[in-house]
Amino acid sequence: MNWAKIVLIVAAAALVFAIVWASVPLSGAAEPVQAFPERWSQSGHADTTSVSFTYWDDDDPPVIPVGCAQCHSLYGYLDYLGLNDRTPGQVDAPAHIGSVIYCYACHNEVAQSRTSVVFPGGAEITGLGWDSACISCHYGRASTVSVNQATEGIGVDEINEDLTFINVHYGIAAATQMGSDAAIGYQYDGKDYVGRYLHVPDFVTCIDCHDAHTTAITVNDCAPCHANVVVYDDIYDIRELTTDFDGDGNVTKGILAEIQVFHDTLFEAILAYAEEIVEVPLVYGDSFPYWFFVDEDADGEPDPAELTFANRYRSWTPRLLRAAYNYHFVSQDPGAFTHNPQYALQLLYDSMEDLAERVTVDMEAFTRP
Ligand code: HEC
Ligand code: HEC
Ligand code: HEC
Ligand code: HEC
Ligand code: HEC
Predict the structure, then answer these.
(1) Nearest ligand by distance to the CA of 222
(2) Could you tell which of 51, 64, 72 is best to mutate to test the pocket of ligand 3, judged by most ligand atoms within 8 Å of the CB?
């Protein structure tokens, strides 16, 4: 290495240090400052190639619309926070493409001092800390309110061609965690739902469990209380609740496994209702808008070629839409078993119970939390 290179590297390091020093209060930071960009660069937040940040690149004009920019753009998020003379709590203008979730998204005076967040559907959750930054991007885009609005005035088993599937969206951890405090899951009339999952005092907020920069979970943090946890995948076997929700006699398997039994049984019930009551079978596929007419070529299998937008399911009834909404809600939060296991079980149970008014659902052994 020659001197010019060394000088350049030292200068670059000094610059990074100076920028971070100026923008971040460093008191108490035990790590060298370079560790933060390094850790952040391992996260999805820094992934310039992700569809989350490139989806709009080929649009004309290439901007991220107001409805999407809050969570898919640094500039949109700053706009939502109300920086640069924008209105706080909404996105005023479409945002430039080409950004990811850079440091400044979370390290600015508003993101660091906000204490409340208004969720889709209107619920305001107060008493928050820096996790409010995570929550505003991870709370989904629909709610009990929007599902009720879409289905209002339509008979519960009436097929309505104007109904379309309502996708709660992705990475919805905060929606699950807040439970009925935010009501982002579809909550049936007359049922009670748990509120925010408070877990244990030091492991409540997003950044108690997730590293704010890598976004990863450190399982060594969990092991002191959850004795089963030795390697990473053991988190899926954590079990504390002692009710036998699925009635199989096993109360030591992971709470995730109980949720999966409810989720699978709800899926069977959805298929049965579509087939027997709507008389238009449907299939669930891993691409937007997720529910499709099954089997256009009648070969007995849903083929990848059939999972197209043109082939999207269009025979929704309010009852089917609500159940499908909750099924997809739980699919879209792979951390639901930690974020709020009882809320997930309640949503799934109530959707099954509602479908069971019209079709046979194998849930006699099940217990609602
Ligand atoms: C998604 C939000 C987010 C992003 C993006 C982010 N940080 Fe942080 N950062 C936090 C939070 C929250 C903390 C508080 C400490 C914790 O709990 O980990 C923090 C803490 C820090 C600290 C420790 C000092 C302190 O105030 O506690 C430094 C230094 C830091 N970040 C630098 C950076 C740099 C540099 C980047 C960009 C490369 C970055 N951060 C990106 C959320 C973020
Ligand atoms: C401005 C919006 C925004 C903020 C703020 C934000 N996220 Fe994200 N988050 C996203 C997006 C968009 C993705 C998907 C990234 C991708 O596709 O690569 C994501 C992905 C994730 C993932 C999935 C794993 C990964 O790395 O891809 C986790 C976990 C996560 N975020 C946690 C957090 C936490 C914890 C915070 C707060 C410290 C936070 N997020 C703040 C928008 C945000
Ligand atoms: C409230 C925040 C929020 C808003 C608003 C939002 N998104 Fe997202 N979106 C996310 C998060 C968070 C993820 C990433 C989840 C993950 O990968 O863990 C995501 C992921 C995506 C993905 C990738 C999906 C996949 O299968 O990986 C697409 C495409 C997308 N969003 C499109 C949109 C569009 C289009 C809009 C506007 C109509 C929009 N989003 C509005 C938060 C939001
Ligand atoms: C008690 C610990 C805990 C808390 C609190 C917590 N999470 Fe999680 N989170 C997890 C675990 C465990 C997973 C599953 C990780 C896995 O499967 O690898 C997870 C998964 C996720 C995922 C999906 C990651 C992926 O790979 O798709 C996102 C996004 C996420 N959490 C964001 C958040 C946000 C935002 C908050 C705050 C509202 C939060 N989490 C609060 C433990 C927690
Ligand atoms: C200080 C002790 C403690 C730590 C640390 C801790 N937990 Fe917990 N956890 C508990 C307790 C106590 C419960 C039961 C809470 C309840 O049901 O109200 C629980 C419940 C859970 C559950 C739900 C289990 C069930 O059957 O309902 C999961 C999943 C979980 N924790 C995951 C984690 C993960 C992942 C971590 C590490 C990031 C972690 N916990 C760290 C004490 C802890």
Answers:
(1) 5
(2) 72
